[in-house]
Amino acid sequence: MFALATLVVTGLFNALAQAPPGAPPPAAAAGMQQPLEDGPCLDSPRAVPRVLVGPLSRGMQIVRIDQVQSTATMMPGAVIGFLYTTQDGTTWLGERTADYTSPAGAAAINQVLAATHISTKNVTQFPPQTRYGYPTKYQQFFQVRIPADALSALRIQIAPCIVWPPGRSLPDPVM
Predict the structure, then answer these.
(1) Is pLDDT of 83 > 70?
(2) How confident is the model at residue 69 (pLDDT cuts 50, 70, 90)?
(3) In principle, which of 21, 63, 109, 126 could form an S-S bond with 164, CB 3.0–4.6 Å?
(4) How many other CB atoms are found less than 10 A from the CB of residue 161?
(5) Cα distance between residue 95 and residue 140, in whole Å
(6) Beta-carbon neighbour count of residue 151 at 10 Å?
(7) What percent of the chain is predicted at pLDDT more than 70?
(8) How far, in Å, CA of 148 to CA of 47, rounded?
(9) How wide is the angle at C-alpha 119 spanned by C-alphas 64 and 113, nearest 5°?
């Protein structure tokens, strides 16, 4: 058993020693093609390039996540939610994950939703999701349109968080 372990370690050492200088290690080279995931948006419930809402299609894959920051809170730049842009160009508003959503942040993001939602339903808040009286903690995303000149009236600012590289093709959403 010891001889087998020594053989494996020696083989790995020799493979790494033969790599040209300045070349990334094999694990790092493989990691360059991985999805971006959340990047700096670690408290975002969805990641780039995942599908935001069904159906599974390339058009519903997230290509950009922006932070919605409140300018009316005691802490300047407090993140109250996320603005997701999908491949088809639509924008969707979502709250932070439950662990990071404060009551003040929930009230602020609901004000933004009430003013900017696009829906046939009159949805103006992120209601708690329940099933048979028990909270499910499902995330909700609502299609919105936020005009640039409305940011000051809404007392928010939009800060870029993560963007899918424009020349890079999106992975298959089914995988």
Answers:
(1) yes
(2) very high
(3) 63
(4) 20
(5) 8
(6) 15
(7) 72
(8) 24
(9) 60
In this prediction, residue 67 has a pLDDT band, given cuts at 50, 70 and 90, of very high
Please tell me the total number of residues recorded for the chain in this structure: 175
Inter-residue contact 128 to 140 (CB < 8 Å): no
Q: Select the more confidently predicted residue: 61 or 13.
A: 61
Q: How far apart, in Å, are the Cα atoms of 34 and each of 5, 78, 108, 162, 167?
A: 30, 30, 34, 14, 15
Q: Residue by residue, what is the 3-state secondary structure of the chain?
A: CHHHHHHHHHHHHHHHHCCCCCCCCHHHHHHCCCCCECCCCCCCCCCECCECCCCCCHHHEEEEEEEEEECCCCCCCEEEEEEEEECCCCEEEEECCHHHCCHHHHHHHHHHHHHHECCCCCCCCCCCCEECCEECCCCCEEEECCCHHHHHHHCEEEEEEEECCCCCCCCCCCC
d(CA 106, CA 70): 11
- Mean pLDDT computed over 129-139: 73
Domains of the chain: which residue ranges?
Answer: 1-34, 35-163
Q: What is the mean pLDDT of residues 28-40?
A: 51
